[in-house]
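Teaching assistant here, posting this on the class forum so everyone can see the example we discussed in section. The complex has two components, and the goal was to see what a joint structure prediction looks like when all of them are supplied at once.
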Amino acid sequence: MTLIRAEDLTLGYETGVVAEHISFTVEEGDYLCIIGENGSGKSTLIKALLKLREPMGGALRFDGGLSAREIGYLPQQTQVQRDFPASVREIVQSGCQGRCGLRPFYRKEEKQLAADNMERMGIADLADRCYRELSGGQQQRVLLARALCATQKLLLLDEPVTGLDPHVTAQLYALIEQLNKEGLTVIMVSHDVTAAVRYASHILHIGRENFFGTKEEFLESRIGRVFFAEEGGKADV
Amino acid sequence: MFEQIGYYLSYSFAQRALAAAVLTALSSSLLGVTLVLKRFSFIGDGLSHVAFGAMAIATVLQFDNTMIIVLPITVLSAVLLLWTGRNRRVKGDAALAMISVAALAFGYLIMNIFSASSNLTGDVCSTLFGAYSILTLEASDVWICAVLSVVVVGVFVLLYHKIFAVTFDENFATATGTRANLYNLLIAVIIAVVIVMAMNLVGSLLISALVIFPALSAMRVFKSFKSVTISSAVISVVCAFAGVMISLIAGTPAGSTIVAVDVIVFFGFCAAGWLRDRSGMRA
């Protein structure tokens, strides 16, 4: 089933257009990687997908009636979060907020859901620890567990491995791959093209030249070949 | 000393002052964490100046109960500031600075031109730094204080998890279906109410201290949102109680005494947090 259908999107701010002529579709179960240089509009596209910012032109349709309460989001970290006094459990539970609506307190099921997702991300033993004292990799797992509390369908990841060491990066990618295999649709913004090609089923490249297609089509495409020529032909996929 | 405290506590004016101070301190401490972390502290400061201007108008119009004017104006300004300040941080900051100094200037002007009072400097000073009149509170003042603090605490408890979600990560909250704008608005309204409550106690220049110091103290030592919130409420109430007692015994102004106690406690917590980090213990 098609979840998202984007046709000829134009993205930008008041100051000008950041990216245009973006078209793609996301089917249930896909693993879409959005790649492109810094400033090419990747994060703006994520904001449009999250309905935080309206696209300037084109159409963005959520076909299966995908509502905000079915989306999980792993944002880039903000400064506020680095000072925030919060335990891991408090943060993961806040992922259930969307399904609470106006209800002020968490139900038993929601607390259980948070506990299950902490288990799933291997951070159950950190539940009472302070978020700002964790390592970068642990923090990302916490935010991933929170995102999983918010969604059963679609996970959006904005540069999830920024600032992580290679070992932790590989672990996080494996974790995301596992979630995708369990049936979650994944959209990930990344500038790590090698990883994108290794894990994704579809690639969207935005920049001076846009590309959308399956991973295999990307490797055959002109842009794909340029990328891997630059990287010394290490496309061992 | 305890005899002296007991002696003062037997007087109803002291009881009223303590009740009002404790209730105000409790309400003002709750949103401290949110204000500090959302970089909203400047809104609190600006609003307190607006409240000063409103107070000047109310004084000149000779309202018996100034809150009838001050509360709506401050709440309205809170809503407007949050509305116009969104997504345009710099403009919001500038607008706020403009409004807050303008309110101060016009407030003083109005009091100067129209005031019938013989002690103008005293009036202005007590509006800015809190009144001795905390010792001349009527029972009705304490009741208003009690009602407002029940409202503030009640709303805070009901919105506790939403406030956490919106403060920790507004984008995530919005994207996953929480109405962050609505809750930001409610936060601003609560701040406005707290500021109006605190006007009488510590005066408009010292309100921010009452809101921010307990939260900052608690954040030095405690590590979860819940423990920080609870402990900043406790710190705030204890400081307010101690401040009023000291001001009764030593004859100092209540508002600045409370704030001074808050500041001393803050340095105490800094030292405690530093010592604990050094010894490598974890909460």
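For the discussion questions: The two ends of chain A are 27 Å apart (CA to CA). Chain A has two domains: 1-66+153-237, 79-152. Think about how each of these relates to the inputs above.
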